[in-house]
Amino acid sequence: xxxxxxxxxxxxxxxxxxxxxxxxxxxxxxxxxxxxxxxxxxxxxxxxxxxxxxxxxxxxxxxxxxxxxxxxxxxxxxxxxxxxxxxxxxxxxxxxxxxxxxxxxxxxxxxxxxxxxxxxxxxxxxxxxxxxxxxxxxxxxxxxxxxxxxxxxxxxxxxxxxxxxxxxxxxxxxxxxxxxxxxxxxxxxxxxxxxxxxxxxxxxxxxxxxxxxxxxxxxxxxxxxxxxxxxxxxxxxxxxxxxxxxxxxxxxxxxxxxxxxxxxxxxxxxxxxxxxxxxxxxxxxxxxxxxxxxxxxxxxxxxxxxxxxxxxxxxxxxxxxxxxxxxxxxxxxxxxxxxxxxxxxxxxxxxxxxxxxxxxxxxxxxxxxxxxxxxxxxxxxxxxxxxxxxxxxxxxxxxxxxxxxxxxxxxxx
Length: 413
What we know:
Structural class: alpha/beta
Strand order of the largest sheet: 2-1-3-8-7-6
Largest sheet: 6 strands, mixed
CATH topology of the largest domain: Molybdenum Cofactor Biosythetic Enzyme, Chain A
Strand content: 15-25%
Helix content: 25-40%
CATH architecture of the largest domain: 3-Layer(aba) Sandwich
Radius of gyration: 27 Å
């Protein structure tokens, strides 16, 4: 069954706001057996919204709108839906009284413009909003369905899960998306597809997407199955991909790389410290993003200057003079030095040229060295990372996490 999402709000057509509601609803809709085949962003114009609804209903059994249910003059989703469905709209005394009580309970007097939030399209089921003043609405229209939901994520999520999802599961008749997702590191997108294409082309009924992220690639295999239908082919293809890619797959459950590294550090019982030059804290931020990271992360040093590398991490001046701040030798000494400075089991380092200036023929912009040391030994890796300054820094932090994952997998009993 086909579904469309319409995100309403002129602000979503600017670079200042991103429609994240659609991402959440797409995952939930797929799991409930609905195929989202189109998403639309439309401004606050009444005719624009109404036109988008009419077009969507010609294509899809389900249309969900988010946003435009507030109390202001530019919140026009309700009247637009009323016009698109050719249904009248009336003001509900029951909702009005509930709104007044909510404002009164908070010590406020309700403004006149809030009254429009009590307007209900004829035949609509009102969906109570436990976290806000804009109720949602569910409308059946000639065998098709329209849901009006508020824009704030907390409000939308609550109404969607309490009222909309149960309806959608019944309507889908048990249809669902069977899928497997693989997050992969250390394999370029082109090489990745070349390796798995001979596997997935043998399964013409299964759809495959290969997506490149900032520091990793993802592969999703999926197809729609009826309530009693087996998805054994998904499992079979997934097993073949797992064998082909092996340890390059860092997650099949949606875990992020920092979550995977967190689990491995806990399992190993080892502690960690980081020395960062060109990333200036991005690696430490990734590691500490996971709750409870204080159990294994002891600290870090932002050694941006050569003096900081020498004074704070014990890099020998002769090393920098002879090999440069961006070198394998410096990366290894940084890893050893920060390990010693923080008394951790493992030290890891990043030093590189993020640009846009500072590069040369021998050491171009994007050249980054990574070091890791456990006291007994130290090693380094060299990468030339493409992109602008920010993407080089982001990818460097991700690669350092990947290097740490590799170390922990090889050195944890």
